[in-house]
C-alpha cells in the first residue's frame, strides 16, 4: 500500500480545520473537511491553543537554531542541586532533573559534569588500577512480583545525630556489632612528621628518626599503664555482663516461684468457691442451716488468706522496683562503656525486578527476634504471584517455620552462598542506603523510628534509581511501565 502524500497546507485550510474542530469537537471530521491528515492537526494544535488563529498564519522557521548550549536556568539548577546534596554525582543530578520533568531526561550526565567542572564543584575521583579478576554474571527478575530479596537490618533503639550507626550482623542468631574505631592517637606515630610541609627533606628525616627513638625508648611504666587501662576496661565489661546474666537468672527464678504461688492461690479460690456451692446445695436439699459458727470460722480463715495475698503482692511490687533499678544501673554502666544494649530489627523486602520496597516492619524484640515473627510479617507483605525469595543463611531464614512458609505459599526459597553477601546485593545495598539516610536523623523511641521509616519508604520508591534496566526512573515509575508492558 502506497503512502499518501499531503502537500503543505494553506492558511485557509488551517483556519477551516480548527473552525470545524471548534464546532464539532471531532478531529476526524475536521480533517476530512479541510483535507488534511490528523498528524497535521496535532502539529498545529499547540500553536493554535497558544496564539489562536493569528498563530496559524505562518510556518515555524526552518532556520537552524542557536548553538546547543544548556539554558542558564538549567545550569543554575544543576549547581544548586550539587550544593544542596554534596554526595550526589552527575547521574543522580541528571535523574533528579528528569524526575521533575515527568521522567523525561532534560540533561545528560556528562553535561552535568561539564557544568560542575566550570563552576569548580567537581573533583575527579581517584581511580585505582586493579588486576583482571573474575566478574560474576548477575541477572534480575523479568517481571514485578516474581522474585524478592529479603534481609534484616538492626539499628539502635535510640540515636543522636552525632553518633555513627554501626554495622550489625544477626545471621548467627546473636548480634555481632562493629567496633567503633577510636580517633584518639590517630596521628601519634613517627611517620606523622612527613605531613608537615613546612619542613624540608633533611629536617623531616631527622624528626622522624628522633620520634622513632623516643617511641622505642618509652618508659615501661607508660606501656604498663596503657595495658592496665585496656585490661581494666575489658574487666569492667566482663563484670557488667556477668551481673547482667546473674540478674536475668535471678529474675527467671523469681518468676518461676511466683507462678507456683499464683497456682496455689487459684487452687484456694476454686476450693472456697466449690465449698460455698456445696454448702448452698446442701441447704437447699435439706432445708437446714449448717452448725452455728462454722461459716464464721471459714470466713475468718479466708480473710487471713486474702490478707496474706495482699502482703505478697505488695512485696512483689517492691521487688519489681528494685529489679528495675538494678537493670537501669546496668544499662547505664554499659552505655558509659560505649555498649548499646537495646536494638530494633527492621525487615527489608525489595522487589528484585523493580527495586520497590514493599514495607519496613520493625520489631522491638531486637536481638530476641524469632523466625515466627519474620514469617508473620512476610505473610502480610509477600504477593501471591511470588516465585522466588532470596535470603542469606541466617537462623531467622533457615528455621523450619520458614520452610513451611515456602511450602504453603508455593515459592522457592533461594539461599545465597556462605560468606557471599553480594549474592543478595539488592537487599544489602538497600540496607546501606537506609543507614546512610538515618545517619543524620534522631529518634528516642520505636514510634519515632517507625515514622522515619515510613517517610524513607515513600522517598526511596519515588526517587531515581540507577540500578534499573531503564536508568533514571524511580522504582514506582518503572513498576508502572513494567505492568503496562
What key attributes describe this structure?
two-stranded antiparallel sheet; 5 domains; 485 residues; alpha/beta; single chain; 14 helices; flat; 6-stranded mixed β-sheet
Write down the overall geometry.
Answer: flat
Helix and strand composition category: alpha/beta
| Overall CATH class of the largest domain | Alpha Beta
Total count of helical runs of at least 4 residues: 14
Oligomer: single chain
Whole-number radius of gyration?
A: 37 Å
Number of domains: 5
Considering DSSP H and I runs of 4 or more, what fraction of the residues is helical?
Answer: 40-55%
Name of the CATH homologous superfamily of the largest domain? Ribonuclease H-like superfamily/Ribonuclease H
Give the CA-CA distance, first to last residue: 30 Å
